[in-house]
Write a structure and sequence with these properties.
Elements: H1 3-11, E1 16-20, H2 24-32, E2 37-40, H3 42-50, H4 60-72, E3 78-81, H5 89-102, E4 106-110, H6 129-142, E5 149-154, H7 162-174, E6 179-182, H8 188-198, E7 205-208, H9 220-226, E8 230-233, H10 236-254, H11 269-275, H12 278-288
Parallel strand pairs: 1-2, 1-8, 2-3, 3-4, 4-5, 5-6, 6-7, 7-8
Helix pairs in contact: 2-4, 4-5, 5-6, 7-8
């Protein structure tokens, strides 16, 4: 069974979470922890690849390479952010072709004006619903694997409000989107209303459980009880890594630049090499020769 087909199988038995991964190592850690699927965030990619905020700074091909590196080291389905599709209809078609080539199984595309912003930032602007529908039609037409899953995302919640967000997603469902996603709802009441009005469309509903954003902090079980089928946890590994490395550097510098001061914060060298597959590579090298 392909990874894309396996993602659709997950949706038959919700709820589940797509754990965020911002590079190959965190992707391997997510899979080792038991993640049924992995999410590749544009916010995290902007930070890792460019050291910049999520203001549409990454190009289509930079994101493609970032996704491909994560797909190479994993076996679970990969859900990859596609921002606005990186342009008009032809660029949107190329985006889904590249995401499939990279090995992803799912993407979401949003109805923001380029350059887009993180859904939890202020100052977002929207394209017309018709322009977004055109992009969705173009992507669905270019899809080669029928199991590849296309999620329509709206950022209307923080711009034009709940009613427009629901109207937009209803229209996106009408052109064939596989799943629906309102980003940055701000209360449990919003979530209940989104589920109440969109569930009759019969498409899976996605919740973004990013912590420190605008949305309420809910467990997967709580999200499912409200009517959502699955969730993404997109930036938690990035924020955890930032905190841990920042504190390790500060401790190292404040204690005479001694590794003894941070030894208890470090994974043992052998354990890390075992994790990234050194024994298997060394055995293969010995068998095949130099």
């Amino acid at each position: 069974m392909s990874r894309s087909a396996r993602f659709r199988e997950l949706l038959r038995d919700p709820p589940f979470v797509c754990l965020g991964a911002h590079d190959a190592v965190t992707a391997k850690l997510a899979e080792a922890a038991g993640a049924p699927a992995i999410y590749v965030s544009g916010f995290a990619a902007s930070a890792i690849v460019a050291g910049a905020p999520d203001f549409g700074v990454l190009t289509q091909t930079e994101m493609f390479e970032h996704i491909r590196r994560i797909c190479r080291v994993t076996s679970v389905p990969i859900f990859a952010d596609a921002d606005t599709g990186y342009g008009g209809t032809l660029e949107a078609q190329r985006t889904i072709e590249l995401w499939e080539e990279a090995g992803a199984s799912v993407l979401h595309v949003e109805d923001q004006v380029m350059p887009k912003k993180c859904g939890h930032f202020a100052g977002k602007q929207l394209v017309s619903p018709e322009e977004m529908r055109q992009k969705l039609r173009a992507m669905l037409e270019a899809r080669r694997d029928r199991d590849f899953f296309v999620v329509a995302r709206t950022d209307a919640m923080g711009v034009t409000g709940l009613d427009d967000a629901i109207a937009r997603l209803t229209s996106y469902a009408g052109v064939g989107a596989d799943g629906l996603y309102v980003d940055a709802p701000e209360s449990v009441e919003h979530l209940r209303e989104i589920a109440r009005r969109l569930t009759p469309l019969g498409l899976p509903l996605l919740f973004n459980m990013a912590r420190t954003g605008k949305s309420p902090y809910l467990s997967l079980a709580e999200v499912h009880e409200l009517g959502f089928d699955y969730a993404i946890s997109p930036i938690e590994p990035l924020l955890a890594a930032h905190k841990a490395v920042k504190e390790m550097f500060e401790t190292f510098m404040q204690n005479g630049c001694s590794t003894s001061a941070v030894a208890d914060r470090l994974t043992p060298f052998k354990e890390f090499n075992d994790f990234i597959g050194l024994p298997e590579v060394a055995a293969r090298h010995a068998r095949l020769g130099s």
